# Entry
Amino acid sequence: MRNETKRLREIIRLDTELSTVQDLDILLERILTEARKILSADAGTIYIKDKNDLIFSYVQNETQRKKLPPGQKLIYSTFRVEINKKTISGYVTATGQYLNIPDVYRIPSTAPYQFNASYDRVSKYKTTSMLTVPLQTNRGDIIGVLQIINKQDMKGTVVPFDSEDVIVCQHFASTASMALQRAQMTRTLILRMIAMSELRDPKETGPHVNRVASYSIELFEKWAQRRSMSSEEVNKKRDVLRMAAMLHDVGKVAISDVLLKKPGKFTAKERKIMEAHTYLGARLFLNKQSEMDEVSAIVSLTHHENWDGTGYPGRVDISTGKPLKKTKDSRAVCLKGKEIPIYGRVVALADVYDALRSKRVYKEAWTEEDVLHEMQKLSGQKFDPDLVAVFFDILDLIRSITARYPDSD
# Structure
């Protein structure tokens, strides 16, 4: 009874907390983490429905994570699977019915679905008990699947999920579905803003901003952990940073496409106009309604400041663009070192890395070797040296993000 009361309190707390998470990717990760925690499960996966496919979006595996060095994350590949009743996740999506399977290796041959053991063979992991529930809106639309794997008892032994687990998981899935709907709407609105920018600047694509945002939160998280920031504070800041990072160049909507699409070098006058996209973007968030507005303004304004004080726009009045403090040649005094907010320092690194690695109409993508050499070269000049060190520590994770959001052909 005491355990059930504790679990009920946890569910009530999560109902409230999930409603505060705004970013879609952060929310998916949080849903999976909390579902596993409530159900005492070792692993789990979230699939998101996209037309006739399920996208393998997030996976967690505590057994596999413990094999990694401290603080390192499990790296996985995302992929699509066609929705049909032959797979467990496909069956749940197609029918809207949950499946509680005590042992996936003992599914009757007469069942329409079967377990694909190839995942276990590749990962050298043994899946046994599995609870799969649909993520369903209040209109009955299925937007994804939550799959929880290998429930563990107090001794760590894998056991089947019971009927109480099913009720708890279905309630949690219902709450998660409402939060996901809201987060998907927020993501859609942000991507529409990006699409407006893309009409003017072909560099501002959905995959580009998703990569920059994903790099940014991983860089920030590792940086924050090294400074003993609480996990609660890290999660909160990751949520707003990811969305703000997606909007880092939103000010370009105010810049002429003659400049945005110019293949050659800018004149001094053109460069000054181009540099204005920083404070023009920040100006969009002057009427702050939330922490996201505040962080978005910071990122827009400071993601082109350099660690050595050679960046732009410097100390300017956002509403006018005029210098608040001038140098001898009447330019705005630039921010330098830790004067640059951490959000701006993080996005600066993420943005430049992605720009160098990406093909553009005016250039080919750099090789990874050349890009990594350039990142090291710019440490202490353009970039915060501590963040460059973090970048190389999580390079495998950075590479997995690049693969997750490929440019369209």
User: Anything to note?
Assistant: The chain has two domains: 2-183, 201-404.
